[in-house]
Design brief:
Layout lengths: L2 H6 L3 H9 L3 H9 L3 E11 L2 E10 L5 E7 L4 E7 L14 H17 L5 H4 L1
Antiparallel strand pairs: 1-2, 2-3, 3-4
Helix pairs in contact: 2-4, 3-4
The structure holds zinc ion.
C-alpha cells in the first residue's frame, strides 16, 4: 500500500482500535447518519447580499451542520462542527469494511443490554 492510500483509508487494526474507544452515540451516527433537528437560523447581510445561516444539531452526538442559504433557497455552503472526540486522527474516509465493523460493534452492544422490563413480563 502506498503512503497516499494509507492516508485515505484506515487500516483494519486502526478501525477496531478506534471503535473500541468510541462512544455508542458516535458509533450510531457514523453508521446510521446524524439525527438532525433545527437549531438556529440567522439573517446575514454582507454588502448587497442577504443570506440565511442555518444551524442543525444532531440530537444524538451534538454535531452541528451549518448551511448558508440564499434568498431563493439555494445552498451556498455547508460545513460541520464536530464534538470533541468525534473525529479520529488517522481515520480517513469510512470504507465499506469500516461500516461493517461499526455495525457489528453496535449489534454487540445492543445484544449485551438487559431487556427493559424483563422482570415485569414474567
Ligand atoms: Zn450525530
Amino acid at each position: 500500500m502506498t503512503p497516499k492510500l494509507r492516508a485515505l483509508y484506515a487500516l483494519p487494526s486502526n478501525v477496531n482500535q478506534a471503535i473500541s474507544k468510541m462512544s455508542y452515540e458516535f458509533m450510531s451516527c457514523r453508521d446510521w447518519g446524524h439525527s438532525w433537528r433545527a437549531y438556529t437560523v440567522d439573517i446575514q447581510n454582507t454588502g448587497r447580499r442577504k443570506t440565511f445561516h442555518e444551524t442543525l444539531l444532531c440530537s444524538r452526538c451534538e454535531t452541528r451542520k451549518h448551511r448558508d442559504i440564499s434568498t431563493i433557497g439555494e445552498i451556498l455552503a455547508t460545513h460541520y462542527t464536530y464534538p470533541a472526540g468525534y473525529l479520529i486522527p488517522g481515520w480517513g474516509r469510512v470504507t465499506k469494511n469500516d461500516r461493517a465493523a461499526l455495525r457489528l460493534a453496535i449489534v454487540q452492544i445492543l445484544l449485551a443490554r438487559e431487556p427493559e422490563g424483563e422482570l415485569e413480563i414474567r
